[in-house]
């Protein structure tokens, strides 16, 4: 194969869930659609300039994100999420007025991800001012391991909640449909 195509295919296979065959198809499509390819490349370049909010690790263009800067948001309630996908699913529903904390991963000894990799010290710091911590994490080994770690780490007088029961066991937070997510969030229960 031509070296530059080979390199492109190799880069694309780094995306989660993309195998060699799909990667080759995408590579050839990009080469055949140079205008779109340039736009994609430019969008990636721009997105890579985003920073992580110094308070909650949400993505933003400056040091602090709009949610943390918003004086109307209730800083005493912190919703802990694995990625900003959950945040992006919740925000348009206008059912939550607290703030977030984005972990960007879950504790997973198999994958070599430990508590120190998740910025939990910062969460502990933020939680000092909080009344409620909502753990919006997957019902998976990693999600539960992370939740347990957070519960043990936080002062005992903070209320810790999770999405309501009634949603399927082993749920993946970001796969819940809009209404289920809304219900699970609003009817949250103590962890
Ligand atoms: Zn923030």
TrEMBL record:
Keyword Metal-binding included in the entry's annotation: yes
Keywords: DNA damage, DNA recombination, DNA repair, Metal-binding, Zinc, Zinc-finger
Any one GO MF annotation of this record: DNA binding
Example GO BP: DNA repair
Toprim domain segment(s): 76-168
InterPro entries: DNA_Rcmb_RecR, Rcmb_RecR, Rcmb_RecR_Znf, TOPRIM_dom
Zinc finger extent (C4-type): 53-68
The keyword Electron transport appears for this protein: no
One Pfam family matching this protein: Toprim_4
HAMAP family on file: RecR
Family: Belongs to the RecR family.
Name by which UniProt lists this protein: Recombination protein RecR
Native source species: Desulfurella amilsii
Lineage: Bacteria, Pseudomonadati, Campylobacterota, Desulfurellia, Desulfurellales
Name of the coding gene: recR
